[in-house]
């Protein structure tokens, strides 16, 4: 029971794991950063069932890394963050569309609409404000994450290359000293 409430290795371990997975990808810093940014960008949209497909398409169009796109999608868009994403995009969408709360006194049975797939009835009150409202935060977060990831991956790859060169130099010196 204790492991469920307080994991032995801490709550941040999955975040550190994803960070290291992204940093260790062998693609260029631009490809990795673009993939992560694409994954985060599409996580803001209300179309949950196709986030990975949308991230792959965006990543492909902008020369990003597909694995990084999947990691960005999984890290940012998950069951813990979706309620906050949906609430934010709903409010931003209503602000951008200059809509008042048109649902005063009315209620929508979202479960029935989703179950029966009345897309035309679902579009105007729910999906349109969420889609419009997702654009500003998606652009902002994906640009910030792109630059942060780009410089982090570039620094990591540079340090890794220097370490490997130093090891190769030491092996060469050892080999030369053994022959002498």
From TrEMBL:
InterPro entries (alphabetical): DUF2062
Chain ranges of the DUF2062 domain: 12-161
Keywords from the UniProt entry: Membrane, Transmembrane, Transmembrane helix
Domain of life: Bacteria
Transmembrane region(s): 48-68, 130-153
Protein name: DUF2062 domain-containing protein
Organism of this sequence: Rhizobium tibeticum
